[in-house]
Amino acid sequence: MSSKLVDLSHVIEEGMVTFKGLPGPHLCDYWTREASAANYDDGSTFQIGRIDMVANTGTYVDSPFHRYADGKDLSELPLASLADLEGVLVRAPFEQRLAVDVAAFEGLDVRGKAVLVATGWDVHWQTETYYGNDPYLTPEAADWLAANGAAFVGIDSHNIDDTRTRARPVHTTLLGADIPIGEHMTNLTTLPDSGFRFHAVPPKVKGMGTFPVRAYAVV
After folding, report:
1. What is the pTM of this model?
2. 218 phi, psi to nearest 5 deg
3. What are phi and psi for residue 167, nearest 5 degrees?
4. How do 60-62 and 210-212 pair as beta strands?
């Protein structure tokens, strides 16, 4: 049976807002095609792009270093926690509830798997609605996922924590257990409940805890 690839990442565009209060990315040419033409005699031209952005832009992965000074940074994350993971989808439509609690996960085998929480909130991407009253995991759900051995946890919402409070217990628990977090994912609702492989690998950057990824599933 043939497989298909499902893109789970948002496009990164000039000036887009991922998290209010953080600057959007600036994209430009460092080396333009026109300027490069003088360097070649065969008509070849090349573009070298430049991007200035904060790490929390678009669809990204948090490593433990994002939360903990002594946690694994991007360069130290094992590929086994980011690539070719068996995936399990948890459907938690935002129209029914915003708080995704333990009951959404109980009975699932999540050990060693990427657990993706499909709330459907990505329908509001790049609108004012996206940035407030968005779905999130409860601290108890994070405790359950860590205790049951999840390898990766992702969500298609603005944040995996409840941003209406001045605390981040879900980040604290999951990253404290060396479980990478994916935020601002998209197209999760198109995935099956199981039977897919998940990939979300950031660059191998030293001293950084977060970076955009091209997350995707093989169904």
Report:
1. 0.96
2. -105, 115
3. -150, 155
4. antiparallel
**For residues 155 and 179, is the Cβ–Cβ distance under 8 A?**
no
Would you report the helix, strand and coil content of the chain in percent, each value rounded to 5?
Answer: 20, 25, 55
Single out the residue of 101, 60, 49 nearest to residue 82, CA to CA. 60
- Give 107-158 pLDDT, tens digit per residue: 999 999 999 999 999 999 999 999 999 999 999 999 999 999 999 999 999 9
Helices vs strands, H then E, count in the chain: 3, 13
As given in the structure block, the two tokens for residue 66 are 């994002």
Which DSSP state fits 139?
H
| The token pair that represents 160 in the structure block | 């995996």
Give start and end residues of each alpha helix (H) in the chain: 33-36, 139-147, 169-176
